[in-house]
What we know:
Blueprint: H1 7-10, E1 16-19, E2 26-39, E3 45-51, E4 60-63, E5 67-74, E6 82-85, E7 111-117, E8 122-128, E9 139-145, E10 157-166, H2 171-179, E11 193-196, E12 199-200, E13 207-208, E14 214-221, E15 227-231, E16 237-242, E17 245-252, E18 254-257, E19 262-268, E20 277-284, E21 297-304, E22 344-355, E23 360-364, H3 376-382, E24 399-402, E25 407-414, E26 420-424, E27 429-436, E28 453-454, E29 461-462, E30 464-467, E31 471-478, E32 483-489, H4 492-496, E33 500-505, H5 507-513, H6 518-526, E34 552-554
Parallel strand pairs: 2-5, 4-9, 10-14, 13-21, 22-25, 24-33
Antiparallel strand pairs: 1-2, 2-3, 5-7, 6-8, 8-9, 10-11, 11-12, 14-19, 15-18, 15-20, 16-17, 16-19, 20-21, 22-23, 22-34, 25-31, 26-30, 26-32, 27-28, 27-29, 27-31, 32-33
Keywords: Copper, Metal-binding, Oxidoreductase, Signal
Domain Plastocyanin-like: 34-148, 158-285, 372-508
Protein name: Cupredoxin
Amino acid sequence: xxxxxxxAIQFLFASVVLFQGALTDRVVVDWDIGYVSVNRDGIxxxxxxxxxxxxPIPPIMATVGDTIxxxxxxxLDKSTSVHAHGLFQRGTTHMDGPAMATxxxxxxxxxxxxxxxxEQTGTYWVHGHDNHQNSDGxxxxxxxxxxxxxxxxxYDEDILLSLEDWFKEEYAERERQTLDPNESxxxxxxxxxxxxxxxxxxxxxxxxxxxxxxxxxxxxxMASLMWFQFSLPGHKMQVIEVDGINTEALEVDGINxxxxxxxxxxxxAHDSNEFNYIYNATLHANFIPPSPGLTPRVYTGKIIxxxxxxxxQDTVCYECQGFKWLDDIELQSLDKEPELVADRQLEYExxxxxxxxxxxxxxxNNVTFAHAKVPTLYTALSxxxxxxxxxxxxxxxxxxxxxxxxxxELTIHNPNNMPHPLHLHGHAFQIIExxxxxxxxxxxxxxxxxxxxxxxNMPVKRDTVSIPExxxxxxxxxxxxxxxxxxxxxxxxxxxxxMAMMFVEAPDVLQETLKIPNAMYEFCHTQDIATVGxxxxxxxxxxxxxxxxxxxxxxxxxxxxxx
Length: 563
Ligand SMILES: *[C@@H]1O[C@H](CO)[C@@H](O)[C@H](O)[C@H]1NC(C)=O
Ligand SMILES: *[C@@H]1O[C@H](CO)[C@@H](O)[C@H](O)[C@H]1NC(C)=O
Ligand SMILES: *[C@@H]1O[C@H](CO)[C@@H](O)[C@H](O)[C@H]1NC(C)=O
Ligand SMILES: *[C@@H]1O[C@H](CO)[C@@H](O)[C@H](O)[C@H]1NC(C)=O
Ligand SMILES: *[C@@H]1O[C@H](CO)[C@@H](O)[C@H](O)[C@H]1NC(C)=O
Ligand SMILES: *[C@@H]1O[C@H](CO)[C@@H](O)[C@H](O)[C@H]1NC(C)=O
Ligand SMILES: [Cu+2]
């Protein structure tokens, strides 16, 4: 199989070195994280966060079984951390990256090496997980190739298409605008631009197809707010991978990719080269009202069969019955893992409402998430048997302690007028069912009477599920991976506004097995962050020193205004 990585044409892999010959191959990646000044959308020059003085950041390519050594140097004026999205980090929960969940951020001028083994194959991405730095550019695809002899699918070339949204303003300003009750909706920043492989989506290098060949396209949505509808008018797609999980091939015409989700599709080229074609990546968010020229934004890339051939002029009806959009619950995991039998069922409502601080914040079951004063993992490691009591993690962590090997069923109701892409760290979960959300408020007529859809045959697994507006989703996973795992909305602004919870999985096992490198505790000490005790750094349920948790003062109606 010939692996042609189109990205290789656009970038030099200067920072990736492969050491052969050891027991496992080491993939060494050097990231000096710092500010850069870039014009990514073709219009606005702005400050952003890049690596080694550049943005976009080259993708990381490795093979299953390799060990990643990601050397970070922090040239920013604030702390930073890096998360490998979708990797289970089995045995290495302290390498997962989210600041104040599993580590203290790496301080300015600090260095740290993230080391972990690649035990999964598929399409992932690596991104900042401190102060929402991913929104300002700190994000890159991570592809973990299967060993050639074990690859379950036949294809001739492997093509990576990374998708991003990009805004004129820095993230901090967008967050300020969103939280300001006096700003209009959508706030001024609301209309993003679309980037493909790091550049203005319409300037991307064409794809080259040859008659009879089959291409694997890897689609990674690294956006912080918006969705991409992806289609190849004139070609069919066979979905074969979702969030790193291989699936039975399913033929579709279009995929609506939520922020943080990934797909691989096989596309077989036509037998003749009499026409050239396009692909279509449409940036949109169904909660931002259409506005001509601003949203949705359609990006088209060329698929060249023959430079002299005309463009195929067939038109596609996207709204028509014959056009099939992917519904992820129809997919089946290739490993045929049967439905898990739930040992424990948890039910949550997510949403946006007015809190006692006077702000509209997001929540899980009326609790708006805020990080504790001690990284949650360090509370789990330092509290002895009390670590099994969910309350020690504090009033705003939404922490749930899970017993080792328990099967968990989570039902999340979303009685809001917008979808939320929820991401679970440390696991892929089975998607069991979608249906109409329980809601205390009237659900608009066009969303009433939505049928319940269950998986067929065997459930699919993934790590990021987009819960449609006015819907619920039921998911299951086995608590077989001791660690501290966030479960949060991957729209950065929603995460910031408190749409998050966390699972503290088998802290008793962690206490027996996990050793934190001293350098990680040092990051905390240099920033005056405690590394032992409960969420406030105190004993048991003494939370003195923590801010008072905001409470719900009024339910908003069915309409929610946040973006
Ligand atoms: C980081 O290092 C630079 C160059 O040595 C220095 O000017 C700056 O003050 C340092 N910043 C911090 C926060 O230590
Ligand atoms: C919003 O406007 C009101 C009335 O003009 C003003 O009192 C308030 O301070 C403003 N709030 C913010 C966050 O700017
Ligand atoms: C691109 O796709 C969108 C739907 O996502 C559709 O509305 C639009 O017409 C398409 N444009 C082209 C040129 O295919
Ligand atoms: C991209 O190019 C297509 C085809 O020329 C055009 O229709 C579309 O408006 C362009 N998109 C943007 C966002 O400029
Ligand atoms: C959230 O608060 C509302 C009152 O505003 C209440 O009706 C509802 O039961 C609460 N939900 C939970 C899970 O506590
Ligand atoms: C909220 O509910 C009311 C009453 O059912 C309905 O008229 C309105 O369209 C809904 N608004 C939204 C934004 O869903
Ligand atoms: Cu959300």
